[in-house]
Design the sequence.
């Protein structure tokens, strides 16, 4: 059941202002508050397999691609891994030698469990639809197979009927947002020739999912109305239709950044939930929330049911599954586990031979090489990042050993985005190391760093104003530069990360002892 309006009023949740939350996720008392994850988990989709929930999120040009989340209660999530280790399988444009696909790459996908395997399908706007599968959520994931080779498609989702026949639904946004339904071959790797059927078209119609519930087929999608993007659904007695009129099941709610793309999932006991992103992005990206689903006359209404039988945002509710432990996605890294941890994603497919966790045990060594464009972090390979969170207090600290630097090299801590970023660290010229702040190629320098050990720090809060600091002893930190407003761009929120490149040559390295991020 929904949290009562009385509890809402006591907590002030009836007047929630976007981005002003001081509490989020698991409250530790059997309830949760939205957002579940105040970070960039865009284009979310989810399933339940037994007592476990799995979700995936789009990753665009970041590698590895298609992040996979795991939960036991739909509220507490950890990062299980990724489905696509090599983006070059998709396109060479997604590698460090090109780096020209900001806002492109891996868009929305869907995850399903069928015949004892996990199946993930996704699209890129330039290359078509792809699929991969694995027996375990931890992989190994099979090499990508291109299911549809065409530009202008997005938001695909597979569905297997009770007789084993597979289908794929997706939108051709380049052709007026027509939603197509295809039959799949038994192995799920090909579209059956001649099976294409247009099943819907409206303004901006996309984000399709297919479900079979109590013998009825439900086509779940979103479209654009006068007040913004809304969630719609249709139902039919057969997968191919005819479908009845589309029913709106969620309001746009632009003041809450449009909760409009995700998946519905049934919890033990028969209650349903909608795991969604908030589609209008800001500096923290498209945050993830969980809304209860209320069935009204056979329609899954998302959130609180209004007198118009359309759902609205719910900011708090009882947890679907009562569990005792609050768990957060991984963030800090001591670099002592022998492999890159799953919270990290490289900006484009990295240059692997320039990365090592073995050359110096317990440290990440990044070897510098020349960027495609001098002093432009958007064109510098091997920048490694993770999602910045929108919470009351964020602090990230990195400890660097600069003894391996060479002339022309630059390394440090970055709030990364496209087109805007802020890179704060050290540059070496003529054997001299100095602090440097690069705000999208507007560069300012600071004092000389005479030692080889340096700590860098960034802090920010709900307003997304970041302040950089440095320290030579790890105890006393000195502020550097003016506060920097974190930003949204290329369909991505801010990311905190590490960079290292050399404008002059492929030489020099930096060793990173740890990265500690608390939120």
Sequence:
């Amino acid at each position: 059941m929904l949290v009562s309006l009385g509890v809402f009023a006591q907590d002030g949740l009836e007047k929630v202002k976007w981005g002003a939350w001081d509490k989020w996720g698991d409250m530790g008392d059997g309830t949760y508050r939205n957002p579940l994850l105040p970070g960039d988990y865009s284009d979310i989709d989810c399933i339940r397999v037994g007592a476990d929930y799995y979700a995936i999120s789009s990753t665009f040009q970041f590698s590895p691609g298609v992040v996979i989340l795991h939960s036991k209660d739909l509220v507490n999530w950890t990062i299980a891994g990724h489905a696509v280790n090599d983006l070059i399988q998709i396109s060479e444009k997604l590698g460090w030698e090109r780096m020209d696909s900001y806002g492109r790459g891996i868009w929305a996908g869907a995850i399903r469990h069928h015949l004892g395997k996990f199946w993930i399908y996704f699209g890129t706007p330039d290359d078509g639809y792809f699929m991969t599968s694995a027996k375990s959520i931890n992989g190994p994931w099979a090499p990508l197979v291109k299911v549809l080779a065409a530009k202008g498609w997005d938001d695909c989702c597979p569905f297997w009927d009770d007789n084993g026949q597979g289908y794929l639904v997706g939108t051709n946004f380049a052709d007026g947002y027509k939603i197509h339904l295809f039959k799949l071959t038994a192995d799920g790797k090909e579209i059956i020739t001649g099976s294409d059927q247009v099943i819907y078209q409206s303004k901006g119609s996309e984000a399709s999912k297919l479900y079979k519930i109590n013998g009825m087929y439900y086509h779940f999608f979103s479209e654009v109305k006068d007040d913004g993007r809304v969630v719609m659904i249709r139902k039919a007695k057969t997968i191919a239709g005819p479908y009845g009129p589309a029913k709106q099941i969620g309001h746009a709610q632009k003041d809450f950044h449009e909760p409009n793309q995700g998946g519905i999932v049934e919890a033990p006991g028969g209650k349903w939930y909608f795991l969604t992103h908030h589609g209008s992005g800001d500096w923290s990206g498209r945050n993830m929330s969980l809304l209860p689903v209320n069935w009204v006359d056979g329609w899954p209404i998302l959130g609180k049911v209004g007198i118009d039988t359309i759902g609205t945002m719910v900011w708090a509710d009882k947890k679907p599954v009562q569990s005792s432990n609050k768990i957060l996605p991984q963030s800090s890294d001591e670099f002592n586990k022998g492999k890159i941890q799953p919270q990290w994603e490289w900006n484009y497919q990295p240059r692997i031979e320039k990365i090592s966790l073995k050359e110096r045990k317990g440290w990440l060594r990044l070897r510098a090489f020349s960027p495609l464009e001098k002093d432009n972090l958007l064109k510098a390979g091997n920048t490694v990042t993770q999602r910045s969170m929108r919470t009351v207090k964020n602090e990230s600290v990195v400890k660097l050993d600069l003894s391996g630097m060479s002339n022309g090299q630059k390394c440090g801590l970055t709030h990364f985005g496209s087109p805007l970023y802020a890179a704060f660290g050290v540059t070496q010229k003529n054997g001299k190391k100095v602090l440097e702040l690069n705000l999208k190629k507007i560069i300012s320098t600071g004092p000389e760093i005479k030692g080889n050990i340096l700590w860098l720090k960034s802090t920010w809060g709900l307003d997304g104003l970041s302040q950089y600091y440095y320290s030579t002893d790890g105890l006393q930190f000195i502020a550097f530069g003016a506060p920097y407003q974190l930003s949204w761009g290329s369909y991505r929120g801010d990311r905190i990360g590490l960079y290292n490149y050399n404008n002059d040559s492929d030489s020099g390295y930096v060793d990173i002892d740890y990265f500690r991020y608390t939120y």
Notes: The chain is about 0% helix and 45% strand. The first helix runs from residue 5 to 11.
